[in-house]
């Protein structure tokens, strides 16, 4: 009788353990990395003053189909960022950029809203490092 219960318990445990598919997010062995490149303008967006890889820019990650970001970090001194310990799945990486179109205001973009520069990536296997193309932002 104990043998039947032990077998039944083992089968239930294995069924539950292997049937649960883990969603995109933290807890894996893969990573996503990239750089943020910025163009710096004067406050009227008339003149480009500089361009370089941007330090201290917030970069966000959305796990799968989540409605909001799951984590964020600031770029390093050379514009690099990296999200570690991710599982297989779909991710969106984004950073904010100034709007240079003037759609929000007639005051030469003084009150220009932020735009979201989004890159979609997929992790397909364990211990994978996905390199994201540069996120190009505009900063005034």
Briefly summarize what is shown:
The chain is built from one helix and nine strands. The chain is mainly beta and 140 residues long. About 4% of the residues have low confidence.
General description of the model:
The protein starts with a helix and ends with a strand. The radius of gyration is 22 Å and the shape is elongated. The protein has one helix and nine strands. It has one domain: Immunoglobulins (Immunoglobulin-like, Sandwich), CATH 2.60.40. The protein has 140 residues and is mainly beta.
What layout of secondary structure does this protein have?
Blueprint: H1 2-19, E1 26-41, E2 48-53, E3 58-63, E4 71-74, E5 80-86, E6 89-98, E7 114-123, E8 129-131, E9 135-139
Parallel strand pairs: 1-8, 1-9
Antiparallel strand pairs: 1-2, 1-5, 3-4, 3-6, 6-7
Just name the CATH architecture: Sandwich
The SSE order reads HEEEEEEEEE
The CATH homologous superfamily is called Immunoglobulins
Topology, number of strands = 9
CATH topology (level 3) name: Immunoglobulin-like
Strand content: over 45%
Structural class: mainly beta
Radius of gyration: 22 Å
Shape: elongated
CATH class descriptor: Mainly Beta
Chain oligomer state: single chain
Report the end-to-end length measured between terminal Cα atoms. Answer: 75 Å
Domains, number: 1
Q: Report on the biggest sheet.
A: 5 strands, mixed
Tally of contiguous helical segments: 1
Helix content: 10-25%
Mean pLDDT: 83
pLDDT < 50 runs, ≥5 residues:
14-19
